[in-house]
Design a protein that fits this description.
alpha+beta, two-stranded antiparallel ribbon, 5 helices
């Protein structure tokens, strides 16, 4: 799995560097990746647990990132919302979906999907010396880094749509940590 991730990162960097100053582009990408991971993994998001305010805040932020990148949004600012039952509770989550339309009239109705989940485990309460202590699962590697990479790819695709015959769909899924509910919803209900 690590080998696949390294190869993917190398290919992404190669793709993003085409036609630009390597040093300038690398610094810009690095700063943007860091900014997005830091926002998503910030303690204020409380681990982005499905249905939490932290997940809602992350969804709104990601919607705006895709919009600013020039992606045509297919969901509203609040995303494509869905709910599911878990241990007697109803949990509300959302997917964020946008597209860069392909240029070939015969192929633009075919889609290449680039996706990542933006939720994480949230929090849990542990007993430490008899007192409750909140444990935050920040989720920088699961999956804030993947989401940040998706945003960078979206920026480049939106800047160079003439390179793509097929439409490129960007999907950010909620509630992955509960059994990939967001991606299931996308595939079965969108």
């Amino acid at each position: 799995m690590r080998k696949i991730r390294i190869i993917s990162i190398v290919l992404l960097v190669a793709f993003l560097l085409c036609g630009r100053s390597y040093a300038q582009q690398f610094v810009s990408i690095e700063e943007s990746l860091r900014k997005n991971v830091e926002y998503l993994a910030d303690p204020a998001r409380l681990g982005r647990g499905a249905g939490s305010q932290g997940e809602k805040d992350a969804a709104k932020y990601l919607y705006n990132q895709l919009l600013e990148a020039g992606v045509t949004m297919l969901t509203g600012e609040n995303g494509e919302d869905f709910s599911f039952a878990h241990k007697g509770d109803t949990i509300y989550s959302r997917n964020i979906i946008g597209v860069v339309e392909g240029i070939n009239p015969a192929l633009k109705d075919e889609y290449v999907v680039i996706a990542a989940h933006y939720d994480h485990l949230g929090t849990s309460v542990l007993k430490r010396d008899g007192a409750d202590e909140v444990q935050i699962y920040y989720g920088a590697d699961d999956n804030a880094s993947g989401v940040a990479t998706l945003i960078e790819i979206a920026k480049e695709v939106a800047l160079q749509p003439h390179l793509f015959d097929r439409s490129i769909l960007f999907a950010l899924f909620g509630a992955e940590e509960y059994g990939m509910v967001g991606s299931w919803y996308f595939l079965n209900r969108s």
